[in-house]
Amino acid sequence: MSELVQLTPGMGHRSRTRAGLATLALGLAGTFNGVACLAADEKSDARAAAAEDTLEEIVVSARKRTETVLDIPASITAISASTIEEAHVTQLDDLNALVTNLNIDEAHDNTPDVTLRGVGAFGVVQGVGFYLNDVQLFEGQTARPIDIERIEVLKGPQGTLFGGANVGGAIKYVTKDPTNTWEGQADAELGQYDTRNYEAVISGPVTDAVGIRASVYYDHHGGYI
């Protein structure tokens, strides 16, 4: 016994039309999914870029109290410890490359001649003061800046807080605080012309309320001077 299958005119055309519509629908769905994934990736990248562009809050003590740089109505440049390390600041005149309108020249007797915004040293008048945690330095201004939390360069007259002699500005070293646990660090550098640089830092608590931090360095340069 044989079975006859009756074909209705136009059935094959409708079947091909349905198959084409299904393929088109799948293609559009894939396109929409790709667009959605791309949009999600763009939003993720935008969030990451926004997080990277967030300004880091810089805390200084230029006015002898802790505050952020944005709250100070004065021109100040704060150089962090990481910047000091990355820029390999080993001498005072290395700050010339990090601070605008600052010019430092170390004299033969290691006394720095400093001009800030064109105002400062004029042979016998210094004009720009150096400070270590708000204590003025009259000797040792050119000491190697090691174990420093940050260097604050205050531009303009600082007579109100730092004395009338600072008509050009002030350069302030802020040292690192003692740590809650004992820790130490030692570095050594060797170079040409019999150059040897050594640094060591030790920090820790003495009691629950008292801590100590000590840093030393030794430089030797066997050049023609």
Explained architecture:
This protein has helices at residues 11-53, 81-86, 159-162, and strands at residues 59-60, 67-68, 76-80, 102-106, 112-116, 119-120, 128-132, 135-137, 148-155, 169-175, 183-191, 195-205, 211-220. Mean pLDDT is 75; it is low at 1-8 and 10-15. Among the domains are: 76-175, TonB-dependent receptor, plug domain (Ferric Hydroxamate Uptake Protein, Chain A, domain 1), CATH 2.170.130.10; 183-220, no CATH class. It is of the alpha+beta class. It contains three helices and 13 strands, in the order H-E-E-E-H-E-E-E-E-E-E-H-E-E-E-E. The strands form four sheets. Strands 3-9-10-7-8 form a five-stranded mixed beta sheet.
